[in-house]
Design goal:
Strand order of the largest sheet: 1-2
Shape: globular
Radius of gyration: 15 Å
Order of helices and strands: HHEEH
Number of domains: 2
Structural class: mainly alpha
Number of helices: 3
Oligomer: single chain
């Protein structure tokens, strides 16, 4: 986990992430090739961060966005279950 207080709550998530040590490490090759993190549309798509296609209405881009959202929902449910079970604080 990467925690930084460099940017206050009024800063956008994207700006705070791009200025973070984690982003620098990821740009330097921290992630194994072929692996990515999933981010929402607040972030910029990159070789290590998969984000939804903007304004996708149909076709393969819309399909991708649907499955991207499913991954996000599964992760949120998993983390919520861990929190409920008090495995994370």
């Amino acid at each position: 986990m990467d925690i930084s207080i460099t940017h206050g709550g009024a800063s956008s998530d994207c700006i705070a992430f791009e200025a973070s040590d984690l982003n620098s490490c990821l740009q330097g090759g921290l992630m194994k090739e072929g692996l990515v993190l999933f981010g929402d549309n607040a972030y910029h798509n990159s070789s290590f961060l998969a984000t939804p296609y903007p304004n996708a209405k149909s076709g393969s881009c819309d399909d991708y966005n649907y499955y991207h959202l499913q991954v996000n929902d599964v992760l949120i449910c998993f983390l919520l279950q861990l929190y409920i079970c008090k495995l994370i604080q």
